[in-house]
From TrEMBL:
Location of the SpoVT-AbrB domain: 4-45
Organism from which the protein derives: Natronococcus occultus SP4
Record keywords: Coiled coil
MF GO annotations: DNA binding
InterPro entries hit by this protein: SpoVT-AbrB_dom, SpoVT-AbrB_sf
Source domain of life: Archaea
Name under which the protein is recorded: SpoVT-AbrB domain-containing protein
Transmembrane segments: none
Residue ranges the record marks as coiled coil: 45-72
Length: 76
């Protein structure tokens, strides 16, 4: 981990090791106690497909399960 300061134009330069590991594009998420940089994949759709490649249920099945779980939690 490294301490980084903004330059006089408000820019932030990430260390080379960080850029090599996570890439060059980030979402800036504002949190109550600070900010978080979330890497953005070059091809977000492909990244999602890779992330869920091992899921065997359809989107409809997952949606139905989520709806049922929410209703159960709400005291159906």
């Amino acid at each position: 981990m490294a301490d980084i300061a903004l330059d006089d134009r408000g820019r932030l330069t990430l260390p080379k090791e960080v850029r090599e590991r996570y890439g060059d594009r980030y979402h800036v998420v504002q949190l109550p106690d600070g900010v978080k940089l979330v890497p953005v994949a070059d091809d977000p759709l492909e990244a999602l497909k890779d992330e869920f490649a091992d899921v065997e249920k359809s989107a409809d099945e997952l949606r139905d399960e989520a709806r049922d779980a929410a209703l159960d939690e709400a005291g159906r």
